[in-house]
Design brief:
Layout (H helix, E strand, L loop, with lengths): L1 H44 L4 H28 L17 H7 L13 H33 L5 H13 L2 H12 L4 H8 L11 H29 L3 H9 L4 H29 L3 H6 L11 H11 L5 H29 L1
């Protein structure tokens, strides 16, 4: 007992001295900064201008990694491929835009000069429609269940949110291992006497699984938002409606949906924007195949700008500007609808 107490005292003493050391070091650093940097700087520029110096590092990082690439992107969109440096790229104006938008019928990519871009546009459109509808509906149903009085509610909330914490590449590789021709699911089907299915080599199956995998991996995030919206509804409204004889259907139509609409709008717009930007899961799962069945806009941009042997930075930049315009429109719609809700 004496040896254990002595060891405990030693550990406590070491901890106290380390705490004192770091506290003293912190006090000394702050004193030096105040005495030799912040106080002279404040006297030089004045108190009202001091906040600008605190946001300056963040502005520099933003300018270097966000603003500068955006400006370069516009430069590439209006210059001719395939040279990399802007000084070596002749100015061609809007020729890249004209080339991408040159279509006999935009509903038929085969009539377009840059047919692969329009295939990626229509693939993205189909993906967005199906994925967003399924995402919102499934997230709402899951939130309603998790908001009810069920056993192990905290456990199930964690389980549904867990896929959000996984890296998209990890999610794609897990599902690829399950769905490939010699994968787990086909192994189970074969064991049951059912023919193996071309889940990743058939275009229809590939599109279907892309929607399902994306929904599975992101559903927990939107479920959490909707669950927060459900919990913000006062319990008194439910109690008053039940006194008046309302059943669960009446509660859903008369209380839940009207009060949850602002949250539903946020979830819908966020899922729309995220669906338009889908890339990492697709790149690791199908690589855009089979053929161009799962080639989406961001992957088209990546392929032309980075992975193609001939770097078509002009077409890639033009496509990214068009996609950014679509995202801006979605954001404006969200702002207008939210303003109307208020």
């Amino acid at each position: 007992m004496i040896r254990k107490a002595t060891r405990k005292d030693v550990i406590q003493t070491i901890g106290d001295r380390l705490s004192w050391f770091f506290a003293s070091l912190y006090d000394w650093i702050t004193y030096v900064l105040d005495r030799f940097f912040f106080n002279p700087l404040q006297k030089l520029v004045g108190m009202r201008r001091m906040p600008y110096f605190f946001v300056l590092p963040n502005l520099l990082v933003f300018s270097l990694f966000s603003l500068l690439p955006m400006l370069l992107n516009f430069g590439y969109a209006f210059t001719k491929d395939p040279n990399l440096f802007l000084s070596e790229r002749p100015w061609i104006g809007t020729q890249n835009f004209s080339q991408i938008l040159n279509c006999g019928n935009i509903l038929d990519p085969n009539t377009c000069v840059v047919d692969l871009f329009w295939r990626s546009v229509w693939n993205t459109s189909q993906f967005v429609v199906f994925q967003v509808i399924i995402m919102v509906v499934v997230s709402l149903l899951t939130a309603l269940v998790l908001n009810g009085k069920i056993k192990a509610r905290g456990f199930f909330r964690s389980v549904y949110f867990y896929p959000v914490l996984l890296s998209p590449i990890v999610v794609a590789l897990i599902w690829k291992w399950i769905l490939q021709d010699s994968g787990l699911l086909n192994g189970i089907l074969t064991g049951l006497g059912i023919n193996a299915q071309p889940f990743m080599t058939n275009p229809t199956w590939a599109r279907f699984w892309m929607v399902m995998i994306s929904t599975w991996s992101n559903m927990g995030f939107y479920t959490l938002i909707l669950l927060a919206g459900l919990q913000a509804i006062p319990q008194e409204l439910y109690d008053a409606a039940k006194i008046d004889g309302a059943n669960n259907t009446d509660l859903f139509k008369g209380i839940i949906m009207p009060l949850l609409m602002p949250t539903m709008l946020v979830v819908t717009v966020l899922s729309l924007i995220r669906a338009v930007q889908v890339f990492d899961i697709v790149y690791a799962f199908t690589g855009g195949g089979p053929g161009s069945a799962t080639m989406y806009i961001v992957q088209y941009i990546y392929m032309n700008g980075f992975s193609s042997p001939i770097k078509l930075m002009g077409l890639a930049s033009t496509a990214s500007i068009l996609m950014a315009g679509a995202l801006v429109i979605l954001t404006i719609i969200q702002m207008v609808l939210r303003r109307n809700e208020v």
